[in-house]
Amino acid sequence: MTAVHPSEQSADVSETLAKGRILPVVVLDDARAAAPLAAALTAGGLRSVEVTFRTDAAADAIRAMSEDPQLFVGAGTVLTPGQVDEAVAAGARFIVCPGFSPRVVAHCQQVGVPVFPGAATATEIQMAIDAGLDTVKFFPAEQLGGVAMIKALAAPFRSVRFIPTGGVNTGNLRDYLALPAVLAVGGTWMVAPSLLAEGRWDEVTTLTAAAVNAARES
Ligand SMILES: O=C(O)C(=O)C[C@H](O)[C@H](O)COP(=O)(O)O
Question: Where do the TM regions start and end (predicted)?
C-alpha cells in the first residue's frame, strides 16, 4: 500500500464541493431510502453527499447511493480505521470526521482516500496542517462562534479551507460562503430525519434547490 501524497487530499472532491458549496449530512436508518434520496438530492442540483456512520445502515446506504453516477458519496462520523475500510469498501470517495483523530487520518492517507477531519481549535488546525491536509470540517460551527470564529482562525492559517457544519441553514449559509476561507458548508437541514423517514422526497428536492440557489447568490 502506498501513502497518498498530501496534496491529493481532496483534488476531485474539493473541486466538486467548491462547485456545489453544499454538503448534505445524511443520517439514514433504512438503506432502502438511499436510492430515492440520491435522486432527490441530484434533482435539487447537488452532486455530493456525506452519509454518516451514526447508523448501521451507513455502509449499505453508501453502496446504494454510489450507484448514482452523478453523485460524489462520502462517509461521515467516521471514528475508527475500521470504519474507513468499511466506507471505502462500500464506495465512499471521501471521509469526514467530527474531530481530529491522528490514527483515522493516517489510515485514510495510507489507503489513499481523501479525509476531512473536524477541527474546532487552532491546535487541531495545526495538527491537520502537520498531517499534510489543507481542508478541515469546522464543527460545530455555530456553537463555536460561527463566521467570526472562522475569520479569526483563517487569519493565521492562510492556506486552510473550512467546511463549517453544525447549525448552518438556508438563513445563514450565505454569511459562511462569503468567506474566502470557506470551501463549502455542511448540514442536515435539507435532509432532516423526519423528511427521510416519511419519504418526503419532493421536499428534500425543494430544500436542496433553495440551498443551491442561495449558495449561487453568495
Ligand atoms: O455526524 C457527524 O459526524 C457530525 O459531525 C455532525 C453533523 O455534521 C452535524 O450534526 C450537522 O449539524 P446540523 O446541520 O446542525 O444538524
Answer: none
Q: What is the ipTM of this complex?
A: 0.94
Among 23, 25, 169, say which to mutate for ligand 1: greatest number of ligand atoms within 8 Å of CB: 25
Number of domains in the chain: 1
Instruction: Supply the range of the domain harboring residue 179.
Output: 6-211
The answer to whether position 56 is within a domain reads yes
Strand order in the sheet with 135-138: 118-119, 135-138, 161-164
Query: What is the reported pTM?
Result: 0.94
- Asked about 137 being catalytic, the answer comes back as yes
Hey, what amino acid is at 127? M
Q: Encode pLDDT of 90-148 as tens digits.
A: 999 999 999 999 999 999 999 999 999 999 999 999 999 999 999 999 999 999 999 99
Q: How far is CA 206 from the centre of its chain?
A: 20
Q: Is the CB of 54 under 6 A from ligand 1?
A: yes
Strands (E) across the chain are located at 22-26, 48-52, 72-76, 95-96, 115-116, 118-119, 135-138, 161-164, 185-187
CA–CA separation, 144 vs 33, rounded Å?
A: 32
Query: Does residue 50 carry a catalytic annotation?
Result: yes
CATH number of the domain encompassing residue 111: 3.20.20.70
Total Cβ atoms within 10 A of residue 190: 26
Ligand 1 touching residue 52 (CB < 6 A)? yes
Residues composing the chain: 218
Tell how far the Cα of 166 is from the centroid of ligand 1, in angstroms. Answer: 5
Minimum CA distance residue for ligand 1 atom 2 = 77
